[in-house]
Amino acid sequence: MALEREPSSEKQIDDDAVKRYFDGAGGTAPAAMSVMSHEHNLPSSAVEYRLSKELGTIGPWLDTVAQSGRVLDVGCGAGAWVEIFAHRYRSAVGVERSPLMVEAAKERVAHLSNAEVYQGDGRQDLPDGPFELIFLGGLMMYQGDTDVVELLHSLKSRLSDGGTIILRESTVRRGALALKGDYQVVYRSVDVYQKLFEEAGIQNVEVRRNFGYTCLVIAEELIDLRRKWLPFLPKDSLLLGSVTWSALRAATPISFWALPQALSRLNVPWPKLQNHFFRLQPLD
Question: What pTM does this model have?
């Protein structure tokens, strides 16, 4: 899939195409699809590694939420964060549109009496608040600008006083880029998101780069290079995916730390996509 520039418009995203993509993922492990690692044959340990790094990145933000708080996860995917929140807080509710993901998420949190997952569209099927924390792990990039602003307004109305919204979104360095075709998504820069937050009456309290995501994308891009330059090897291979991940993990100080840090400081656009966490609060 190629990245192409897409001007801002009301039709940035074909929502039916997004729904078809996620509904048509039969046979795909929901945990892998939830973090978009399913097309590169990476092992489950790669997903777990990313999740652990992400938790470390926003752990201090989560620590500011009282343990007695209620948490809402919109677009909860396979339920990994719902499970985390249920272990940390009084209650956690997940909303997810994909039946495949809902089934996996319910199974994941079935042992937790304070966790609930139900099927619904986050733009119109949100439960009543108030919530001390609302989390969206990669949902806004499947929404056009107008839907992003409207959803943020809806989330604001469900926050408790002093409540926080945390977004995790894949980003580009400048402007906005869109994927068209079977997989539709809008990748926005941090600056573009900032403008949408302001339009919704929300302040961006803090932004943190998600290097857990970077680690996974580095592996995926190397697999894409292998597929391109070594076409005689199998395109889809769990063994080769595991070997790639193991090699990168063995060289972690360079592959997952020094290299992405250095390239970021040099403004070298590799890997192509970044990912950021946004900590948001309503403007007074």
Answer: 0.90
